[in-house]
Amino acid sequence: MSRQCNAAFVVVLLSGCTTLIPPYTTPDNSTLPAHYQQGSGKKSEDAALTSEADKTWQSYFPDPHLQALIRQALLHNHDLRSAALRVRQAQAAYRIERSALTPTVALGVDAKRSRTPADLTEIGQTSTGNEFKAGVGISSWEIDFWGRITSLNEEALQQFLATQAGHQAVTISLVAQVADAWISLRELDKRLHLANVAQANQSESLRIFTRRFEMGSVTKLELTQVQTLLTQAEALTLQLQQQRDLQHNAVNLLVGQVDLVDANYRPVADQTLVQPLDAGLPSDLLINRPDIVAAEHRLRAANAHIGAARAAFFPRISLTAFGGLASAELSDLFSASSRAWNFAPSLSLPVFDGGLNQANLDLANVRKHLAVVEYEQTIQSAFRDVADALANQHWLQQQLSVQQQAVEIQEERSRLALLSHDRGRSSFLEVLDAERDRLQAQQQEVQAQHALLRNRVALYAALGGGSRHVPNAPLLDQPSSTLFSDIAEE
């Protein structure tokens, strides 16, 4: 019995010593530019030599109400919950593949009683027999000489890690989406406030002009001009209120709960919603962006699958073994003479499969090439995301400066037009045009301000902001109660 155990131990040691996985080489990233077109490519002095991935999302979005919404979204958003469960699914698949590396040892107790008819026995008499067994056994365990199971195990591991990185990408994207939706809601609030002020002013002007018309000091044309200005302000107010209600619903959907948005809340200043970001170097994207990390893990998984496809050309050796006690009588089962064992290795060598193994190998190679292309494309898309955000930041700042000047000019024009009309030097039509243009300029200034803030959010997501502080999804060995709470608290 000891000789058989030693032989099985040697087989276990030999198992998995060989792998046919090709050596992994990271695709060439030399085509990645050294710096961004709109950036210096150097860390600013106040960046404290830290990348954006080293900061938490709370440092990007310091507004307390926005932080509360993001926490709620991280707890209740359905897309994030689905991503976390996909991580658990991938982990379970990896554990299934890993279990094939070790034999399944089962303890069995069997009892059998059989009756054989007389015409089937050698002595021509009915025979009744018993058989009792107790022991441990290994059933059809494949010995991984060529690394087929090891390759599949490595593939499953890399797929699991890719899914985990994908969960981090979804988390960062969700934080950015909530911030962007919240900023859009605040933009509509501010635009709606300006429209309400304009509507109130025009209502007062209509009251005054109606009284003057009754006294005969203004014409019917001037009265209708004031009415026109009021109806335009009312129409704008209704449109903005509709957009705000829709945006409110969008925020609630992202957060995962209804009516968490405080309609009366106002931030201290719009500038506090998002902190300025340092773009850093393009090479930082390779380690900060979870989608790039996930793409590389998928590439490693495709590379590992080639090893499994290569191993299919070699013989498969499986082992079935049993050791224990066997007896025809239950009373004799545990006697010294009842010891029994069997050792049954088997070998299967593919001879003709209609080209199946070669087709699987070709498919594995093609999938690896596809994974390389997807990896390179992910890097290029990431670089473009950052470059676009930096370009938008440059031009949006200039547009905001122009819009601020336009508001100042339109306010002065409106004041002068009204003064000129009161002195009888011009018609009210000039006042009407000036008021309409001033409201439009104010609306455009608010839009430019918040477009710049939303672009900062886009830059946050493009840089993989806070990726080093985004926790991994809870795994199968963690309690279900902590499935999402750790993510929200991070």
Give a quick set of tags describing it.
Outer membrane efflux proteins (OEP), alpha+beta, 490 residues, 2 domains, elongated, four-stranded antiparallel sheet
Description:
- The protein is α+β, with helices and mostly antiparallel strands and 490 residues long.
- 59% of the residues lie in helices and 10% in strands.
- It has a four-stranded antiparallel beta sheet, with helices on one face.
- Helix 5 (148-215) packs antiparallel against helix 6.
- The protein is elongated.
Superfamily (CATH H level) name of the largest domain: Outer membrane efflux proteins (OEP)
Give a short account of the largest sheet: 4 strands, antiparallel
Cα shape: elongated
The average pLDDT is 82
Assembly category: single chain
Query: Which runs of at least 5 residues are low in confidence (pLDDT < 50)?
Result: 1-16, 40-49
Question: Briefly, what is this?
Answer:
This protein is α+β, with helices and mostly antiparallel strands and 490 residues long. The chain starts with a helix and ends with a helix.
